[in-house]
Amino acid sequence: MRPSALDPLFAPATSLDGIGDKIAGLISRLVPADLTNRPVRVGDLPFILPHSVIDRSRRIRIAEATESGIVTLTLTVGAHYPPPRGKNNLPYRVMAFDETGEIALTFFHGRQVWLEKALGEGSRVLVSGRIEWFNGRASMVHPDHIVAEAEAEKLPVIEPVYPLTAGLSAKVLRKGIAQALNRFPKLPEWQDAALQQRMELPPIGTALQRIHAPVSPAELSPEGAPWRRLAYDELLAGQLSLALVRQKSRRLDGRPLLGDGRLVQGLLNALPYRLTGSQETALAEIHADMAEGERMLRLLQGDVGSGKTVVALMAMARAVEAGGQAALMAPTEILARQHHATIARLGEAVGLRVGLLTGRDKGRDRQKVLDELSAGEIDILVGTHALFQEGVNFSDLALAIIDEQHRFGVHQRLAITSKGNAPDMLVMTATPIPRTLVLSAFGDMDVSRLTEKPAGRQPIKTVTMPMERLSELVGRMRDAVADGQKVYWICPLVEESENIDVTSAEDRYESLRQVFADQVALVHGRMSGRDKDAAMSAFKNGEARVLVGTTVVEVGVDVPDATIIVIEHAERFGLAQLHQLRGRVGRGEKASSCVLLYKGPLGEVATRRLAVMRETEDGFVIAEEDLKLRGEGDLLGTRQSGSPGFHIARLEFHGDLLAVARDDARLALTRDPELQSDRGEALRVLLYLFGRDDAVRLLRAG
Ligand SMILES: Nc1ncnc2c1ncn2[C@@H]1O[C@H](COP(=O)(O)OP(=O)(O)OP(=O)(O)O)[C@@H](O)[C@H]1O
């Protein structure tokens, strides 16, 4: 049950003056992304933090304001010039002056009664807003503030500036936030007293007050005490929910999965290569976890092409040896089919029964798989999200592997954990993630890393090339194809979108057909599953030698004899994505290359990104650079749902707080596993405050 202290914050935002459904809808775009599926609450508003301040402290005279910008002037009001009756589209002007000059205060939307009051002729007022100069005349359209000189203290000196969205005015938002702050209840302190003192964290109420009514710009800095307090709260809420997942999944009894090595050894013998040292180490860690009575919760992190799939297979083989079943969930249909093909082929050697289940499988075929699964006639089931839907019943699921590629957040892990059958869990992630992010997103898991690539891989040669050299490039590709090579050609969007100038995959496909005729295939997200499969397999078996595609080929696709990848409009992709895409080549023993086609002029960030791509192939280095260039939000945030993207914490400033929060969260649970002490109760408040309700439900009295 939600603590009643929080009731005022959980009231709908529309209960605030001046906020109707429409405004609430606009505000929802400013609150954390994972909250947008529910109506905006009063409690969301205080967490919309200002990004800068306007300093109105300096008062100047008209003539001193030589440039356009925000100024505060002390004026004597002159004549009013309302628009003629019936001409409300014309502005309402009020002239005002000081000893150095004159300024026109301009208002739209017709005659307004309040103007006559606020700007009585002959009165002295402080006016603050943006001054503009035109032909030597000064004007100010809709001043931000007008206050009588006698009430000068009413003018905010330092005024926070909030992120806005079209249709939402600063005034409305500010008023809403002010009301929400007034309703902010006194909440119990959830921070450990000693830690709070050591870290100099103000109480949450104080932090919010100070950040919304700063007395100096420094108070708004992410490194300032108010922001650090809020960031630490957010991180602690995240780490606490991860710790709860961990506690819950550990408590559900796992079972020791031991095997006689029959399948594992058989597979090793059947592999056409030897495992790398990294693969062996990771596998040993995984097998050791599985042998324990506690549930495994492990993350397998590997750079592109480091060979995660075979590690997954060996883990699943152990689960089957131990008498159970295993499931492997892939993020896309294409990938599920690819994994299925690889695993079924290798598994055949040792008699593993491998099934496939995706959203596309319907009717009788689907039923057959489901029946075999529940009868225990399938050992390993590969599929997409469809795997963990209702109606899919394993006879004895012992190991769940999730190839998450950033799309499988803590909420989904919670969902599987709450299912109750307590399988061991292994999450695989392809993009190397910086350490701080591993902690923030996977603080509940143990980590294995694949740090080396299989022997014999050659470096990928990466070049950048302006779009103008397209025809020269096509000529070179023609030679390469004649020489027996295979080429990926990546385009950013499926169709010409209205105002973005993007060469679509379809157009590119048509134009490349002029050159490569039947040797080119097309794959993109809007094609039917069957057509996608056909294109992929034509490319795999070599009927097609050029595969034009959108980023559907980004994740995981494995065609080891493809040696060239061309990425069009490379300047539009993020670093992590470019690295993933490039990782489609260089997967065999032949030398590969990557051509980054760009359309100039390039901005600073795009230039840097392309340079990083030329300089290194090391995914961990690239991830760190990406973090620097983009901030952590995008790296984990935008492309996935339910991930711990942060709203307040910014890891470039608050990364140091993460480890503290994790230790604090784990310690709190060790002392008080059900959060029943005073601090425990307060921590529940924290969880609700940051939208971690589902974590509270993991508690016995949740
Ligand atoms: N030890 C090894 N020696 C040689 N080749 C290997 C080894 N392990 C895996 N491979 C091969 O390397 C290729 C990449 O493996 P896999 O598809 O598992 O990579 P991945 O880690 O999933 O990469 P990505 O995330 O880029 O898809 C495959 O063709 C696989 O057969």
From TrEMBL:
It holds the Pfam family RecG_dom3_C. Keywords: ATP-binding, DNA damage, DNA recombination, DNA repair, DNA-binding, Helicase, Hydrolase, Isomerase, Nucleotide-binding. Residues 289-450 form the Helicase ATP-binding domain. It comes from the Bacteria. Signal peptide: none annotated. GO terms for molecular function: 3'-5' DNA helicase activity; ATP binding; ATP hydrolysis activity; DNA binding. It catalyses: Couples ATP hydrolysis with the unwinding of duplex DNA by translocating in the 3'-5' direction; ATP + H2O = ADP + phosphate + H(+). The keyword Hydrolase applies. GO terms for biological process: DNA recombination; DNA repair. Its EC number is 5.6.2.4. Plays a critical role in recombination and DNA repair. Helps process Holliday junction intermediates to mature products by catalyzing branch migration. Has replication fork regression activity, unwinds stalled or blocked replication forks to make a HJ that can be resolved. Has a DNA unwinding activity characteristic of a DNA helicase with 3'-5' polarity. This is ATP-dependent DNA helicase RecG.
